[in-house]
Amino acid sequence: MSEAQIIDGKVYAEKLRAEVAAEVAELKVRHGLQPGLAVILVGEDPASQVYVRSKGEKSLEAGMHSVTHRLPADTPQDEVLALIQSLNADPAIHGVLLQLPLPKGLDEKPLLAAIDPDKDVDGLHVVNAGRLSQGLPALVPCTPMGCMILLRETVGDLAGKRAVVVGRSVLVGRPIAQLLLQADCTVTIAHSRTVDLPAVCREADILVAAVGRQRMIKADWIKPGAAVIDVGINRVPFDDPVKAAEGRTKLVGDVDYKAARQVAGWITPVPGGVGLMTVACLLQNTVTAAKRLNGLDG
Ligand code: NDP
């Protein structure tokens, strides 16, 4: 059997960002509307700083209005809450994103709940989770949305496919399962208590791994020809002992990629797969929110 086709996240992310930029330009010309994104970063988590910088840069590149609020790690809960409320009320802002994780001492649940669901471009508000589960128009979490775009662009019609999602988090596993269901897949959600996970995975035409355990999904868990979407991001030492001794690390997914490529039909690499779609989908969500808030379909 031939090797799996690699799903290149860079290609599809660039395509989506170009589509978003074209839509932003059209909204400006036809409706005088410039979609606006506000990102709140509390503290100095290094990974979050990288993500937030990228969100700011990419939204500006797409022609959006973009603001980043950087707050010190010891900012009190009520100050973060007040900022969210002011952004909710700001007509120039259509998307409000609170970068997670928050520093110790801040309680994320009430802060996420305070974001106007119609500006909740991370799709984490319970109202959006509820809308999604009922098949209503919702703002959908960005990584799951990116997975669906990759599947549609490669596999095509998903109706009737057996899909297995490993992981049931609010951020990734559950919304992906909902989106696959909406696409008329027959969906199984697996998790840490699933019995005989390899056998469950082997049933999948579409296998989504969202666990956070390096290379857990083995090649012999994969049905030949399946589409494998690896959401996992795990930092591990280099295999090369010299680099490892220098303390250098690299990113790997939840799937044993090299071996899995020999079995799967399509596969996303890590890095270079799903992760690249997340920011592009955030931009898409901001445009969707701007349109809906202004009564322009979406
Ligand atoms: P969580 O830790 O919130 O959830 C992990 C899920 O995996 C849980 O549902 C857990 O089950 C399940 N799980 C854990 N161990 C096993 C096991 N041995 N067998 C089967 N299931 C297991 O993680 P997230 O959903 O937030 O993230 C998952 C991965 O995706 C991480 O690597 C994260 O870094 C990555 N990620 C990537 C993004 C991207 O942009 N590419 C964005 C967001 C996340 P249970 O519920 O039973 O505990």
Summarize the structure in words.
- With 298 residues, this protein is an alpha/beta fold.
- It has helices at residues 9-31, 46-61, 77-89, 108-114, 126-133, 142-154, 173-182, 197-202, 241-245, 257-260, 274-293; strands at 5-6, 36-42, 65-71, 95-98, 162-166, 186-190, 206-209, 227-230, 234-237, 249-252, 266-267.
- It has two domains: 32-116, Rossmann fold; 142-277, Rossmann fold (3-Layer(aba) Sandwich), CATH 3.40.50.
- The protein has eleven helices and eleven strands.
- The strands form three sheets. A six-stranded parallel β-sheet has the order 1-11-8-7-5-6. A three-stranded parallel β-sheet has the order 3-2-4, with helices on both faces.
- Strand 2 (36-42), helix 2 (46-61) and strand 3 form a beta-alpha-beta unit.
- The longest helix has 23 residues, at 9-31.
- It is globular and about 55 Å long.
- The N and C termini lie far apart (43 Å).
- The model has no long low-confidence stretch (mean pLDDT 97).
- NADPH dihydro-nicotinamide-adenine-dinucleotide phosphate binds at residues 143, 166-169, 171-173, 190-194, 197, 210-213, 231-234, 274-275, 278.
